[in-house]
């Protein structure tokens, strides 16, 4: 049983260039920063609302302060992750 019809060979796979390692690392850092900002800010607002209800007679400013603290903490963590540019295990001191 020979196959008399020869099927053409499949086309070669198109190789797409992968993202450079630095771009992938940068995207990962940005993803981490944005998720950290969202999580820490919402936790800060949550604590602000709880303190507002329990202690400050339902004022709005504790929620805003909590949002600011959460966003500030996320910003500082993100900034330090972008400034870190050494090998793991080597401590880099900023001037």
From TrEMBL:
Cellular location(s): Mitochondrion inner membrane
Keyword Protein biosynthesis: no
Function (record text): Component of the MICOS complex, a large protein complex of the mitochondrial inner membrane that plays crucial roles in the maintenance of crista junctions, inner membrane architecture, and formation of contact sites to the outer membrane.
Keywords: Membrane, Mitochondrion, Mitochondrion inner membrane, Transmembrane, Transmembrane helix
Subunit structure and binding partners: Component of the mitochondrial contact site and cristae organizing system (MICOS) complex.
Topology in membrane: Single-pass membrane protein
Listed InterPro entries: Mic10
Membrane-spanning residues: 37-56
Native organism taxonomy: Eukaryota, Fungi, Dikarya, Ascomycota, Pezizomycotina
Highest taxon of source: Eukaryota
GO CC terms in record: MICOS complex
Name assigned to this protein: MICOS complex subunit MIC10
Protein family (similarity comment): Belongs to the MICOS complex subunit Mic10 family.
